[in-house]
């Protein structure tokens, strides 16, 4: 097998991993699981969907809208200097969702997860002003860590998926190893919220 074929195969695999496990998808699956655990019944799925909508789907929609306008080439927004508007949309969307959760008397666990993601986004924004941290790695790590806290430590085995996301971001040339590790560490730190929640 030639080096070109191997490189093309690696790039294809990395692209598939980064697209399948992108923040929108990870948050949809993760927030549904967190909501279910928090409520203990099917109503948690509704709260989880609200969380996924505000933390993942609305921001992803905003990115697609800006792409359509020609602001960015793709959803990865590789130029960190152009990322600030995305972080502000995420903060506003998670904030609005959290208010709805408070007013709707949502289960504490899903609200704590939302607030943890909001604080994580502030951290990502702050770091991004000086260094390009990996948002995909942060979200992948946060989802696994939060599921481990609300369900079972066995969820930590899903960190294999976080490692795959980190690898894909490096393989595609979007981030360095340090940027993905930093993102994953910040994502894991979201569980600190449960110590105070």
Structure in words:
This protein has 197 residues and is mainly alpha-helical. Helices cover 75% and strands 0% of the residues. The chain has 9 helices and no strands. The protein has helices at 3-20, 23-39, 43-68, 84-103, 108-128, 135-150, 159-171, 177-188, 193-196. Helix 2 (23-39) packs antiparallel against helix 3 (43-68), helix 2 packs antiparallel against helix 5 and helix 5 runs antiparallel to helix 6 (135-150). The longest helix is centred in the first third of the chain and has 26 residues, at 43-68. The radius of gyration is 17 Å and the shape is globular. The protein starts with a helix and ends with a helix. The relative contact order is 0.14.
- Let me know the largest β-sheet: none
Roughly how many Å apart are the termini? 54 Å
Q: What is the strand tally?
A: 0
- The average pLDDT score comes to 93
Sheet-strand content, in percent, reads under 5%
Give me the secondary-structure category.
Answer: mainly alpha
Helix % is: over 70%
Topology (SSEs and partners):
Layout: H1 3-20, H2 23-39, H3 43-68, H4 84-103, H5 108-128, H6 135-150, H7 159-171, H8 177-188, H9 193-196
């Amino acid at each position: 097998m030639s080096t070109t074929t191997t490189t093309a195969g690696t790039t294809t695999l990395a692209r598939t991993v980064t697209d399948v496990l992108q923040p929108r998808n990870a948050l949809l699956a993760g927030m549904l699981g967190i909501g279910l655990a928090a409520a203990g019944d099917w109503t948690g799925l509704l709260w989880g969907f609200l969380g996924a909508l505000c933390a993942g789907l609305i921001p992803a929609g905003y990115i697609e809208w800006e792409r359509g306008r020609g602001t960015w080439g793709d959803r990865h927004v590789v130029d960190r200097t152009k990322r600030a508007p995305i972080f502000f949309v995420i903060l506003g969307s998670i904030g609005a969702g959290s208010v709805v959760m408070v007013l709707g008397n949502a289960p504490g666990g899903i609200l704590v997860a939302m607030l943890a993601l909001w604080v994580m986004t502030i951290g990502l924004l702050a770091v991004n002003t000086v260094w390009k941290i990996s948002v995909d790695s942060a979200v992948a790590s946060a989802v696994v860590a939060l599921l481990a806290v609300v369900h079972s430590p066995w969820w930590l085995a899903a960190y294999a998926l976080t490692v795959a996301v980190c690898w894909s971001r490096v393989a595609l040339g979007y981030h360095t190893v340090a940027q993905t590790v930093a993102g994953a560490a910040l994502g894991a730190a979201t569980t600190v919220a449960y110590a105070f929640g």
